[in-house]
Amino acid sequence: MTNEIYSFLSSIFIELILYNINDIISFMGKRGPKPQFTDVACPNHSCKYYGLTGEGNIVGNGTSVSRGEKVRKYICRHCGTVFNDHTGTFYYDLRKEESVIDLALKMALKGMSEEAIADVLGITPPTVRRWLDRAAESCDKVNENLMKDLDVPKIEMDEIWVIIKKK
What we know:
Layout: H1 2-18, H2 21-28, E1 58-66, E2 69-76, E3 82-84, H3 98-109, H4 114-121, H5 125-146, H6 154-166
Helix pairs in contact: 3-4, 3-5, 4-5
């Protein structure tokens, strides 16, 4: 029995020796700096790299759990700002799950009152009001960015509003 175990272990050892050391290292993972996040920009307005992606200034800073999901944290090497995936989004710093907040907004769009939404979801009316105010602010920011320098005659704009009002 011991000879069988010995021969089995020696065959595994020989196979490991025959592997290229680079294959073993890539399997195990590498230590040191991780790849830079090229699709993330610094949210600090006073930073030289504000809003610029692919500059190499953003590095990962671990993860945290927020509302039951993993959230990646980052650091800007230039200004030292620490931020995460939710920074600058509608959901930043909210404690409720995104699905509950989305449901509250859908209910408001369907015409339910703030009190009714709060009653159904088991939250307070001021919370619903804050979410709606926050959603309105986010919509205003989107409109500011997308509705710049449009060359639309006043007549066309009036026609668009008539269509919107009918719906």
